[in-house]
Amino acid sequence: MNVAEPLPVIVCEQSGNWAPLLRQYDWPRQVRWIETRSLQECSQRLAEQPACLVLVEVPSERAAALAAWTRRVEEDFPTTRVIALANHQTAWCEPLLREAGAIHVLSTARQIGTLRPWLTRHFKT
């Protein structure tokens, strides 16, 4: 992808906690944040932007459903990469999400800086 082009990153979360934290970090200028509140809305945006990076919050009560969704994304959108946004209550499902196709799992907001290499690698900025 050309460096001048926008870099679409979909943030899928119900809590609304991650997006403000992500916007505070020093990302390449061309990153374009697309916020969604459900997996259904995220899937719709993926159909419009299939070569994007998806950051998806892990709801503790739906970790298995998220793993199944991640597997479908990997099959339906082979140029999309999924990174899971977990917390101390959902960190247990990291192996499940990685097996389903998540390329990285954050277990705390303090790890936001670890996203930069993944973003750079995905978009080759």
The secondary-structure class comes to: alpha/beta
SSE topology string: EHEHEHEHEH
Q: Oligomerization state of this entry?
A: single chain
Please write the CATH class name.
Alpha Beta
Number of domain modules: 1
> What is the β-strand count?
5
CATH topology: Rossmann fold
The side-by-side strand order for the widest beta sheet comes to: 2-1-3-4-5
Share of helix among residues?
25-40%
State which percent range the strand residues make up. 15-25%
Q: Mind telling me the CATH superfamily name?
A: Response regulator
Biggest pleated sheet:
5 strands, parallel
In words, what does this structure look like?
With 125 residues, the chain is α/β, with parallel strands linked by helices. It is built from 5 helices and 5 strands; from the N terminus they run E-H-E-H-E-H-E-H-E-H. It has helices spanning 18-24, 39-48, 63-76, 94-100, 115-123, and strands at residues 7-12, 31-36, 53-57, 81-85, 104-106. Strands 2-1-3-4-5 form a 5-stranded parallel β-sheet, with helices on both faces. Strand 1 (7-12), helix 1 and strand 2 (31-36) form a beta-alpha-beta unit. The protein starts with 6 loop residues before the first strand and ends with a helix.
Topology:
Blueprint: E1 7-12, H1 18-24, E2 31-36, H2 39-48, E3 53-57, H3 63-76, E4 81-85, H4 94-100, E5 104-106, H5 115-123
Helix pairs in contact: 3-4
Characteristics:
125 residues, alpha/beta, Rossmann fold, five-stranded parallel β-sheet, globular
